[in-house]
Batch of 3 targets.
Target 1
Amino acid sequence: MRSRFAAFAVQDEAYLLRTWHPATRPDGVAFERGMRWTELEIEAVSGGSPFHTDGTVTFRARYAYRGQPGEMHEQSRFSRHAGAWVYVDGTVG
């Protein structure tokens, strides 16, 4: 989760696509012009140990959009694919 947040912050599309599950991966990542991701707060984690194949991460991501502060709250689902953890999807709330 932290590495994907950092990839969004520096707009590393290749990394984001590589760490996205093939079943839900988009063709590309549309970065929002004027968006600057500033802080990640992990609220809860379930699964995700070496013994799990699925897990969730609930987080708050803070940003500034064209100078205005904002926050996104999401529960993300991750799954192991080809031995690596990949992002499946998320519910924003």
Note: The chain has a mean pLDDT of 96.
Target 2
Amino acid sequence: MKRSKDAIISQILDVCTEGASKTRIVYQSNLNFRTVIPYIDLLIKNELLEIATTRNSSVIFTTTPKGAKLLKDFKNIQSVIPEIYNMVEKEKA
């Protein structure tokens, strides 16, 4: 089953909560390097991720407070969706 864009964005924001390299994002979000770049660019453009560099000049992506709020909202919505589907199924029966 194909994941929705909001599910992928949610996953990237979650991975970057404590800071993550592009490689970590790719592996933990189950994406490839070509696919992850447009998502990272979009999240940075919308101030949901920020770029930090470490002492050894590695690039680390971190979820911003705005991104953390969006992630929390995503998780709340995702937790309610199964309940809604269950209510609809009970009404059909």
Note: Strands lie at 49-53, 59-63.
Target 3
Amino acid sequence: MSSTRSLPLQVVDSLKSAAAQMKTTKVLVGFDGFVDNILHVVKTRDSATKYTRVEKMTEFAEKIAEAAGLSANMEMVVQMRKLGGNGPIMANALGAYGSAITYIGNLGAPAINPVFAEFAEAATVHSIAEPGVTDAIEFDDGKLMFGKHETLREVNWANLTKHIPEKALLKIFSESQCIALVNWTMLTQMKGIFQKIATVIAPQLKGPKRILFFDLADPAKRSSEDIREVLRQIEKFEKYFRVILGLNLRESLQVGEVLGLRRIEEGHAAVTAHAVRLRELLNIDTVVVHPTHFAAAADVHGAMCVEGPFTPKPKITTGAGDHFNAGFCMGRILDLDLDQSLQLGVATSGYYVRNAKSPKVPDLIKFLKTL
């Protein structure tokens, strides 16, 4: 491949060459599931159908502060109701590439919730409980997510193996080139699931090491000891897998603090160096950190940083990180170089926030040509 071609065009060439491989790739994702209500806050209402929204989080915070000691009535308008949860969104994005997806999680029981109906037709789905619900209030500069998590307690090893016996679960893991285990923060029984995968499933896997991707998903509300313990668990998986830990900037700072690192500045070089240090301390294959405007990663061969196609007016932001994770993991599955994997990640996320849908490969190729 010519080094004179820009990085986005190099990825275009790689995607064209890997079209057949993507269609034969098998990926396992689990274990959460949410119904996402995407909401806007009404600032002023002009008519039954026309209103002006609150665009900035700071403005919303001011409205709340003004109501302290009094009361306030704030109207919210549902923009869309969609499948949610880190796992389903990431799996949906991977499936859009044409790969065969197996999903395990709480998508409805005994029947699949209608919001997951299309997803369940495109993927092989094993639902073990009712989904949670997230109300995601979106602003131009961020989002606030309010979750109802009671049903997530049913995501545990006993209930998992009740629906999928260990022998069948081993077969699913064996057939998957990549496994993504996400949303550790909200799934409070993941410690036990990780222990069982490490002791029951992983030692029986044959052949080359599979990719095992982890997304902690905003661990701020978990204790430092909990975070330290899950990092130890993740490190131990490296014996059986090529482990990737995916972090947004805030998560990377939280993990760094637990590991005793100083707080970093938010520039490209500092974040890239931070990814290198985290990977060294955790002793795993890859650490990837994706702030809003760019992404950086470190693996056993070195470190790279790639600028993202940032837009100040996204159609949707909930799920942007999950789309980045899907793109990056697909790059690793295809054995692309680290910089191409990062480019595929930021392009997949960039297309999604502009169009509020997961890109298919032709969409992605067209988008990459504009970068």
Note: The chain has a mean pLDDT of 95.
